[in-house]
Amino acid sequence: MLSELEIVKGIHPGLILQRELLIRNIAQGQLARSIQVAPKIIDAIIDGKMDMNIDLSMRIEEALGLEEGYLMTLQVFFDIKKKK
Fold it and tell me: Tens digits of per-residue pLDDT, 21-56?
């Protein structure tokens, strides 16, 4: 059986973030306020127009209770897939 990471490997972390927000019924603006970033940053990540960075990844993971490094790992796999 594949792990969740194996299933989503290569997908932009913004899509996974969007899914996590939907599951938790959290608005993008609400997340932005809780981690003290501009809402347009969350919008850009979800739209795939901005890549995840370490600081943002750690803030989001803490706010949503995700495993530390999860979103950055997705970003790395996405970057590898894009490079190929």
Answer: 999 999 999 999 999 999 999 999 999 999 999 999
Question: What b/e readout covers 26-41, taking b as 16+ CB neighbours within 10 angstroms?
Answer: eebeebbeebebeeee
pTM for this entry: 0.89
First to last CA, the chain: 26
Q: Which domains does the chain have, with CATH numbers?
A: 4-74 (1.10.260.40)
**Residue 19 CA: distances (Å) to CA of 28, 32, 46, 59, 60:** 11, 16, 10, 17, 13
